[in-house]
Design goal:
Elements lengths: L21 H10 L14 E2 L11 H7 L10 H14 L3 E5 L2 H12 L5 E4 L4 H9 L3 E4 L20 H11 L7 E4 L12 H13 L4 E4 L3 H11 L8 H10 L3 E5 L10 E5 L2 H14 L10 H13 L3 H20 L12 E5 H4 L9 H13 L1 E2 L1 E3 L1 H4 L1 E2 L6 E2 L5 E5 L7 H16 L7 E5 L10 E4 L1
Parallel strand pairs: 1-10, 3-4, 5-6, 6-7
Antiparallel strand pairs: 2-8, 7-8, 9-14, 11-14, 12-13, 15-16
Helix pairs in contact: 1-14, 2-11, 3-11, 4-5, 4-10, 8-9, 12-16, 14-16
């Protein structure tokens, strides 16, 4: 088993954890309609629902907050962030947004028309929903290995280049307003995308004159995996690899709440000046003036620092090793996970663990509920609750190929003892897995149903 990594930081502020009994958790989850998003955070012992905005900011970030310029237009803090964005990514135009889904909303509002398609390796939930909200079709073209959780592959998040070529030939480039790739590939288990694959994806899009945008929420983790796994990159710095990643793209959307280690914030960047003008008009309508974009000046300052801190070599080595440690503990206990472990989370293969529960009864959601009841561990389902939807042409339900439970590790928050507790809880649930019951939906919205849907036990 991997040794637990040495934390490259000291803990300065602590937050108490409330301990609950099994009976209290049973009441909490039932009152929440068996939806972990509706459980009160204080009733979670270890909260692995998401790594988005849940990390601990550094002393440098907190001190930067005090420099926040809250001017409505032209604030000094915007120009501090502008310098960071240019230095880190190399893109000339950007707007801040309050989070990643706002960047997606603005991009697709100015690019996507009803009936058009947006291909990617795999879109995550808000990207998927924002495309559908514009009447578009999100299309996932990840390599086949991503559908096999136990299969080893160093870059399991890669785009299937041959499938992308065939897709463009089938629907026509004029029906694809923008093409994307997500790094790392969250839906596939936090799996990285190789530089070779990014380059090839860009070549295909550009040959067909399709703008190429990266969903860059975990740009630094992806760069670390490239450094560690891809030939020719071992001697390159994370900063240089990050710049090369962005060099192939025409723009990017980013939830800065991940690798930029802030509690709120997002970015939308591009190279095209005309697109930038349309984006600014949309931003003013929906987010705010282009020099603050839905954020306070203090948030802009923290983000400017976090973009750089997220690329720190020691921090990234620690983060990836921490995730691998949890993966090793589960694997040694016979719990099936997505292999190899990704950067920000461990994903349990719920279909393999709970073969008695059909997809229509949401095995990953059922496992998430069981983990909460057993130990107060809050996780999230990455399966049919999140991604199954009716085909707009036939009405038939389209199910994802995998049913996963994601254990997302907040940045710089939990210690080895916390992860050992998580592993022990997972092992206990695995021993009782035959008693876990499926769920059925009794209430759901049209889009992003996993956030607010309610269930009952089958």
């Amino acid at each position: 088993m991997s040794a637990y990594p040495f934390e490259p930081f000291r803990i300065k502020v602590v937050e108490p954890i409330k301990r609950t009994s099994r009976e209290e958790r049973e009441r909490s989850i039932a009152a929440a309609g068996y939806n972990l998003f509706k459980v009160r955070a204080e009733d979670c012992t270890v909260d692995l629902l998401t790594d988005s905005g849940t990390g601990a900011m550094s002393d440098t970030q907190w001190s930067a907050i005090m420099h926040g310029d809250e001017s409505y237009a032209g604030a000094r803090s915007f120009y501090t962030l502008k310098q960071s964005v240019e230095d880190v990514t190399g893109l000339p135009y950007f707007v801040p947004t309050h989070q990643g889904r706002a960047a997606e909303n603005i991009l697709f509002r100015v690019t996507v028309k009803p009936g058009q398609s947006v291909p990617s390796n795999q879109h995550f939930d808000t990207t998927h929903a924002n495309i559908r909200a514009r009447g578009g079709k999100p299309v996932d073209l990840v390599i086949a290995e991503a559908a096999e959780p136990a299969k080893q592959h160093p870059f399991k998040g890669n785009m299937d280049i041959a499938r992308l070529e065939r897709f463009i030939d089938t629907v026509g480039a004029n029906n694809i307003p923008v093409g994307m790739t997500t790094i790392t590939n969250n839906s596939a288990g936090g799996q990285p995308v190789s530089m070779e694959n990014l380059r090839a994806t860009a070549d295909v899009y550009h040959r067909h004159q399709i703008p190429f945008f990266i969903d860059a929420a975990r740009f630094a983790e992806n760069a670390y995996f490239i450094q560690q796994r891809e030939a020719g990159y071992a001697g390159k710095s994370i900063e240089a690899i990050v710049r090369e990643q962005f060099s192939y793209a025409d723009g990017f959307t980013m939830s800065a709440k991940k690798d930029a280690i802030v509690n709120i914030g997002g970015l939308l960047a591009m190279r095209d000046a005309d697109l930038f003008e349309r984006v600014k008009n949309e931003l003013i309508l929906r987010e705010g003036f282009p020099t603050y974009g839905g954020l306070a000046g203090r948030d802009l300052e923290a983000l400017a620092v976090g973009l750089r801190e997220g690329m720190d070599q020691d921090y990234l080595a620690y983060r990836v090793a921490q995730t691998a440690y949890l993966g090793d503990r589960l694997r040694e206990a016979g719990i099936p996970i997505v292999e190899p472990p990704g950067g920000h989370a461990i994903y349990i293969d719920a279909r393999s663990l709970l073969p008695h529960i059909p997809q229509a009864q949401f095995p990953a959601q059922a496992l998430s509920v069981a983990l909460y009841v057993a130990g107060g561990i809050r996780t999230v389902e990455i399966g049919s609750v999140m991604f199954a939807y009716p085909d707009p042409d036939t009405g038939a339900m389209l199910y994802p190929t995998t049913e996963l439970v994601r254990l997302a590790i907040p940045r710089r928050v939990y210690t080895q003892a916390h992860l050992d507790y998580v592993a022990t809880t997972c092992i206990h649930v695995n021993e009782q897995r035959d008693s876990i019951r499926g769920l059925k939906i009794i209430h759901e919205p049209l889009l992003l149903r996993h956030f607010t849907a309610e269930f009952e036990l089958v």
